[in-house]
Each structure stands twice: as structure tokens, then as C-alpha cells.
Amino acid sequence: DIKKGYADAAAEMTNALYKSQAENLPGNKIDIINTNSWTRKEMVFLTKDQSNAGDKVVDESGKILKSQRLANGELALLGVVVAPFSATRVTVIPGKVVPSGSVVISGNKISNNLIECEIDPVKGDIIALTDKRTGKNLIDHSKGKAANQYLFFEGKDVSKVQTNMPVTIKIKENGPLVSALEITCDAPGCNKLVREVWLAEDTDFVIMINVVDKKRVAMPAKIGDGYASQNLNKESVNFGFPFAVSGGTMKLDLPLGQMIPEKDQMPSACKNWFTTGRWADVSNSTEGVTWVTLDAPLVEVGEISANLVGSQNNPDIWRKKVEPTQTLYSWAMNNHWGTNYRQHQEGPVVFRYILRPHGTFDPAETSRFATGFSQPLVLRAAVKDPYVCPFTFDSKTITVIAFKPADDGDGFVVTLYNPAISTDSFTLTPKNGSKIWKCDTGENKSGEIGATAELPGQGVMMVRF
Questions:
Q1: What's the pLDDT tens digit per position in 73-103?
Q2: What are 127-138's pLDDT values in tens digits?
């Protein structure tokens, strides 16, 4: 209840913030808000209530946007462009549209004008993700491997890993702007496993939504048995992602940085499992694939090596080396440690992943791409007095990762981060003509800077105005 209370309180604060805004405009006008420092152009989904006036949507110039009504009542809207720290307004009007697009489902394949994804008709795993621009499949399907593959085992014996039973594949959405396949099956450790694969028009990525309806498999520890019983009845849920990029190197997203497993680790660092922020990437000098995770931050690299149950104080049993690899495993669920809450918990849990083929690896672009999924465009009823950002910002690579009123009430504080390896410049222009100062984490001024300044690769800077 205490932990649930944190989320409940956050929801109450968020709802109160929305209600405190200016008066909503009459009619069916929706503001689409970009809270990031770069331009966003992507598909958005209006709720059934937001789009109950009809299937037609026009932008501020009166242009009719492409739209598609989904089976759940939502209205998918294509081609929305929103400038940094700004909003664009659309209006839902009565009428129907005949959507046109390139998203097609053919048997166990889903494709658009840029990529094609093929699902194994028996196991439901992704056996091919083909970039139509190069014709290359970026999934390693050798030796029974596949992407988004469900892997479950009890105890610590990895040789006993189990996968799911045969699947049923059906069409959930059937284009032409957005399509989805739903893959349902029985699976060990689950009451049911449901995996969805989504693809939209003009997008070079697929979205996977995995719903693990967990069941209580193992018997609970016996009361009074103490620590010995805590090491019994352990279980682990994983999703495998093997990639095929010739000579590719794996990189993992870190807070304010990135790392190559083994190469960038201290000698005593853990190699059995890793934490990643938003993404992992496998690429060579010309091409690669980015993997984004929204709900599961633990990964294993090269092999399922997270099988050390209980507390481990013997250094000899820990993994010593990570060989170069293009395979990672999302360690989605486990109960390997002793806890102060129930060791076995059941019910549906959602894990979302994104796969995106790309050309030359660009850390700044990859960071923005992944961040967009955890900080989506915000949709709300249009208000009479829309928000106006007090500054403009421009940079090829540098991003704003925090923007807030100063603690002392005098102006604003902006935190900047350069995800690229090399130095880049940014231009920040306060609309009131204020001077700009560097500041420390206590928001104390430490020197005036010009509107245009430089930030080293993977560097962080706080400024206030």
C-alpha cells in the first residue's frame, strides 16, 4: 500500500495540475504538446472521448490529416508536427475519411514502405526484421534463436530454459496507416502470454507489447525456514533479442553516457547482468539496429547469465568476461533475491520494446528516439491561454533534459546534455532578453555566458536566466 501510494499521489498531483490550467475552449479542439527540445513528427492516438465528434481531423491551417479509427475506439492521427516546447492544435470534425497508406499484413508478415517484420507461425517470435532500404534482415535466426522470444526457467539451471507452446496469430488492426498482429499462446510460468507487434505508416520501427499473465508456479518458502528456504523456488522470465549486424558492436545506454560491455567496465564490475537506461544498440560503421525498453531495465549480454540465486559472497562464481556479442536478453521478471514482500506474485504485467534498423549510429539521434517513447507527446483539450515557453533553443545534438522555475523564484534553470561524442554548440535565447549564467546544482550563478555556447561530448551544463 505504501509503494502504491507513491503512484497514486503522483496521479493526483498530475490531475490537479491539469485542472488548474486555463479554461478549456468549446468544441472539439485538442492541443498536442511537445515537452522536448527537438521537433517531433509522429503518429498520435486520440482517445475515444477526444475524437467522438467524427473521424476527420484538421490542423490549424484547415488541412485534413490522415487518420484511422482503431478497434478500441481510438483515432490514430498521422503527420502531426510539433515544435520544441510548443503545442499544435487540431480540431475533430464530423465525417469519415478513407485512409491511404502502405501498412500491410500478409499472413505472418507486417510491412510498410520502410521495413518488414516476419513472425514465426509456430512460436510467435520475430524471425526477420528487414530494412527495405538495404534489403538486410537484422535478426539472427540461427540455431532456433529469434527476437522477442519468451524464455522461462526455474531454479538456476539455465539448461532447463523453456519457451512457449504453439501460438495463434490474428489481426488486431489492419491498416493502412497502422496495423497490429496479436500472438497468443500458453507458456510456462503464465496463465497466458500475449504478444502484439505494431507498425505504422512512414515509421522505420516496430513496437512490441508483451503481456505476461503471470501465475504462481513455485510453492512459497516455508515460514520459519529462514534464509535456506528463501533460496528455493526461484524463477526467471526473459525475452531474447539476437541481432545480425556484420562486425557490429553492442552499446548500452547509461545515465548521461553509454558503454560497451567488458571494454568500458572496471575489473570488479558485474557482468552477469547489466542495467540500461532506455536503449541498447548493435551497429558497425554503416548500419545497425536499436533496441528500446520501456518497462524492463535489466539485461543480460551474450548468454542467460543471471542465474545466481540468493546472496553471493563467493567471487569465483561470478562471470569473469563478456565476449563480443550481438545478443541481449531482457531480464523481465525474477525473484532471485530475498525480499521483504511476497516472493511469488501473479497477474498481468506489460513489457514494451521497440526495434529500429538504422544507418550510421548517431548517439544523439538514438537518445532522442528512445526518449520520445518514455516522454510521449501530451494530448489534452485545448485551453484558452496556451502555454508559451519563455525561451527558444536550438542545437543539432544537445538536448534539454530538465527545465524548471528557479528554487528562489527568480527566473528559470535549464539542464543541458550532449549525448554525442564530440563537442557541439547550442543557442538558448530568453524571450525577455535576460542574461544567461552557468550555475551549479544548487542553482548558484557561476559566470555569465552568451546565447550561443559549446558543450563537450557527453557533457552536462546547468544554466539559469
A1: 999 999 899 999 999 999 999 998 888 899 9
A2: 999 999 999 999
Buried-state track 100-109, b at ≥16 Cβ within 10 A, e below 16? ebebbbeebe
Q: What whole-number distance in Å separates Cα of residue 189 and Cα of residue 236?
A: 9
Cα dihedral: 379, 380, 384, 386 (round 10) = -40
Q: What share of the chain is helix, strand, coil (3-state, %, to 5)?
A: 10, 45, 45
Q: What are phi and psi of 19, to 5 degrees?
A: -70, -20
Cβ-count burial 286-319 (b if 16+ within 10 Å, e if not): ebbbbbbbbebebbbbbebbbbbbeeeeeeeeeb
The C-alpha atoms of residue 410 and residue 57 are separated, in whole angstroms, by 41
Q: Which of 413, 417, 407, 419 is nearest to 391 (CA)?
A: 413
Dihedral, 296, 302, 307, 308 alpha carbons, nearest 10? -100
pLDDT at 319: 96
Whether residue 461 contacts residue 393, with contact meaning beta carbons closer than 8 Å, is answered with no
Contact 86, 377 (CB under 8 A): no
Return the C-alpha cell found at 437: 549564467
Q: pTM for the complete prediction?
A: 0.94
The string over 178-207, giving b where at least 16 C-beta atoms fall within 10 Å of a residue's C-beta and e elsewhere, is bbbbbbbbebbbbeebbbbbbbbbbbbbbb
More confident residue, 123 or 387: 123
Q: Is 123 left (phi over 0), alpha (psi -120 to 50) or beta?
A: alpha
Which backbone phi and psi does 382 adopt, to 5 degrees?
A: -60, 140
The rounded distance, in Å, linking the Cα atoms of 117 and 197 is 9
Of residues 15 and 210, more confidence is placed in 210
The 10s digit of each residue's pLDDT in 164-211 is 999 999 999 998 999 999 999 999 999 999 999 999 999 999 999 999
Q: What is the pLDDT of residue 19?
A: 79
Question: What span, in angstroms and rounded, lies between the C-alpha atoms of 190 and 152?
Answer: 10
Kindly provide the b/e burial profile for residues 35-51, where b requires at least 16 CB atoms within 10 angstroms of the residue's own CB: bbbbebebbbbbeeebb
Let me know if 236 is exposed, middle or buried by CB neighbors in 10 A (0-12, 13-18, 19+): buried
- The 8-class DSSP code of residue 139 comes to B
Count CA atoms closer than 13 A to 277's CA, side-chain side: 16
